[in-house]
Design a protein that fits this description.
Layout: E1 6-11, E2 16-21, H1 29-32, E3 62-65, E4 70-73, E5 76-77, H2 78-84, H3 87-96, H4 102-113, H5 120-127, H6 135-149, H7 159-185, H8 198-207, H9 218-230, H10 238-247, H11 253-265, H12 272-283, H13 289-297, H14 316-332, H15 337-350, H16 352-356, H17 364-373, H18 381-402, H19 426-429
Antiparallel strand pairs: 1-2, 3-4, 4-5
Helix pairs in contact: 2-9, 3-18, 4-7, 6-7, 6-11, 7-8, 7-18, 9-14, 10-11, 10-18, 11-18, 12-17, 14-17
The chain binds coenzyme A (COA).
The site of coenzyme A has 15 residues, from loops.
Length: 431
């Protein structure tokens, strides 16, 4: 017998019954709004701070099954993409929905490579920042500033214009990210080298000094590609939601993406790997791990890099990063904190406190160790996240722009303030 895909709700205030359609496991908030609605009274609303159980969109970009530890971009498992693809191919897949043909890939790679340079005036904008400016502040401002260089970007429904802005954003993010890193060090900004691949060019702009050609170790380039792939999208997270929310006003994509960067800047979103590193340094050695774990179990500490709102199993990205660690450390030498991390993981995965709460390592548990081994200061970790996530933000943004069901994002509120007070002018109040 086929089940009826509806929900019957009885409003005990009035005794009225309503039948709401269920589609794809969801009811529509607008149908809930019909409950109890009269000419004078607003209908029932749904209260959900932080959107913990509210779907804001239909999306075909990224699939996550947190209980099973599955992550797929456009249906392709993250493990296969990390193993056999590269970041530019994954970016194309996320944005355009299909793996590129050879011809499409070559054109895409060519376009991205030849848009890596930024207008010289952007350099002047970046130079204007204080010597100790946080690179994320520089990144979000300079991406926002790009909107003034490409005013045609406001035409968000023209597919060709849209494509040009997508290419520019993906191409210029490493340039802006690398320059924000060089700025803090007082080093000259390095121009892109169009002979290099996307990841190689980024490393060159970060680390090149007087050598005529920068040649990164291929193992480091590969590790960076893998990290970029793993961070490219994660469905409706806080920054994707920021891009969609700001994008719903039909603003240009530079402004929408800079809103995504701002959201990522927050410690609850992009900052956890830095917290993991600080924790590992505080623990200091393998011998001190059991005492630290006891502290976590007593509620005095939190095991950073463990647990996830969605994943209630091993975060599939953490497994891949753990493998990439070994390859990076072959080049850079082992980070002594790795031993502490491994011991923490070993003890935690056997301990009932963590097992019963389904707390497993997440993507941030090992990524900070790699970034540190690559000589990045902690402030750069979020920039390294923002560069690849731009592909995901743009994929989410196109989906939003093309979705006829989407409207300007404008949530309801439950008003709790005063009403109809009589205003007394300051001249009388302050007598
Ligand atoms: C990511 C995180 C915010 C998810 O939180 P959440 O889904 O709201 O889960 P909760 O905070 O409800 O946690 C459920 C239980 O596990 C415990 N818990 C969750 N993460 C924990 C951690 N990292 N260390 C110790 N205990 C943890 C909570 O104290 C709670 O225990 P209780 O049921 O006895 O109260 C949380 O796991 C966390 O703070 N992790 C560390 C920070 C981190 O790595 N963030 C990066 C995420 S990619």
């Amino acid at each position: 017998m086929t089940q009826k895909q509806t929900l019957t709700v009885r409003d005990n205030r009035t005794g009225d019954e309503y039948e709401l359609d269920i589609t794809d496991g969801a009811i529509r908030a607008s149908d809930v709004g019909k409950i109890g609605k009269t000419e004078d009274e607003a209908g029932l609303a749904v209260y959900d701070p932080g959107f913990t159980n509210t779907a804001s969109t239909r999306s075909a970009v990224t699939f996550i099954d947190g209980d099973k530890g599955i992550l797929e971009y456009r249906g392709y498992p993250i493990e296969q993409l990390a193993e056999s693809s590269n970041f530019l191919e994954v970016a194309y897949l996320l944005i355009y929905g299909e793996l590129p043909t050879r011809e499409q890939y070559e054109r895409w790679e060519h376009e991205i490579t030849f848009h890596t340079f930024v207008h010289e005036d952007i350099k002047t904008v970046m130079r204007g920042f204080r010597y100790d400016a946080h690179p994320m502040g520089m990144l979000l401002s300079s991406v926002g500033a790009l909107s003034t260089f490409y005013p045609e970007a406001r035409n968000i429904t023209d597919e060709q214009i849209r494509h040009e802005q997508i290419v520019r954003l993906i191409a210029k993010m490493p340039t802006l990210g690398a320059w924000s890193f060089r700025h803090a060090q007082g080093k000259p900004y390095v121009y892109p080298d169009n002979d290099l691949s996307y990841a190689e060019n980024f490393l060159s702009m970060l680390f090149r000094m007087s050598e005529p050609k920068y040649e990164p170790d291929p193992r480091l380039t590969k590790a960076l590609e893998v990290l970029f792939i793993l961070h490219a999208d994660h469905e409706q997270n806080a920054s994707a939601n920021a891009v969609r929310s700001v994008g719903s006003t039909q603003v240009d994509p530079y402004s929408a993406v800079s809103a995504g960067i701002a959201a990522l800047f927050g410690p609850l979103h992009g900052g956890a790997n830095e917290a993991v590193l600080r924790m590992l340094k505080r623990i200091g050695s393998k011998e001190k791990v059991p005492a630290f774990i006891e502290g976590v179990k007593n509620g005095d500490e939190r095991l950073m890099g463990f647990g996830h709102r969605v994943y209630k199993n091993y975060d599939p990205r953490a497994k891949i990063i753990k493998k990439a660690c070994d390859e990076v450390f072959e080049v850079t030498g082992v980070n002594p904190l790795l031993e502490v991390a491994q011991e923490l993981e070993k003890i935690a995965l056997e301990d009932d406190y963590f097992v019963s709460r389904k707390l497993y390592p997440n993507v941030d548990f090992y990524s900070g160790l790699i970034y540190e081994a690559l000589q990045f200061p902690p402030e750069m970790f979020t920039v390294l996240f923002a560069i690849p996530r731009t592909a995901g933000w743009l994929a989410q943004w196109i989906e939003l722009v093309d979705d006829p069901e989407q409207k300007i994002a404008r949530p309801k509120q439950i008003y709790t303030g005063g009403r109809e007070l009589d205003f007394v002018p300051a001249s009388e109040r302050w007598k």
